[in-house]
Specification:
Radius of gyration: 23 Å
Largest sheet: 10 strands, mixed
Strand order of the largest sheet: 7-6-5-4-3-2-1-12-9-8
Helix content: under 10%
Shape: extended
Order of helices and strands: EEEEEEEEEEEE
Distance between the termini: 31 Å
Number of helices: 0
């Protein structure tokens, strides 16, 4: 299976302790372009975005619960205004999550981005999946030893992206 190939163009502008980013993601196989924009502030880390007809301001926090390292919660806050009607609403919620160990049978996802040029103008990003085989243990009575059999390690390249930071 061929990896999904995207060309991503981004332009970021720093202004008054905020970062405004506009961009486009172009899928080479399907020839579909998606335009994106975001506006985030550097003071509280909130994000201002337009989704459909709504202008939204959102912020989320990760909070550890108690002494255990494997349980945390994500607190989310969002304020939105409908640009056509002027109606506003807010939402505040949380979701408790248990941090799960890596499942080697399902594979390990590796996502890496590195610069091709100086100054990070052109970057290459890939997303790959590595599946490790399940070991097959056998005991030989004749030789009085344990024999370990392994299968093939499977590596798949799922995404390959070229990022242009203008």
């Amino acid at each position: 299976m061929n990896p999904a190939v995207h060309i991503k163009a981004r332009k970021s502008i720093d202004f008054l302790q905020t970062v405004f980013t506009v961009g486009m993601d172009y899928n080479v196989q399907s020839k579909i372009a998606q335009f994106k924009s975001s506006w985030s502030d550097k003071i509280i880390g909130a994000r201002l975005s337009i989704k459909g007809r709504e202008l939204q301001l959102s912020k989320s926090w990760n909070i550890a619960l108690g002494e255990r390292d494997d349980i945390s919660t994500k607190l989310r806050f969002r304020v939105a205004i409908d640009t056509r009607t002027g109606a506003a609403y807010y939402r505040c919620g949380f979701r408790t999550e248990t941090i799960m160990p890596i499942n080697l049978k399902k594979g390990v996802v590796i996502k890496k981005r590195f610069s091709i040029t100086r100054g990070d103008t052109v970057q290459l990003e890939y997303k790959a999946n590595i599946n490790l085989p399940e070991p097959n243990l056998e005991y030989s009575y004749n030789d009085n030893q344990v024999v370990v059999g392994l299968g093939d390690v499977k590596l798949s390249l799922d995404e390959l992206n070229v990022i242009l930071n203008l």
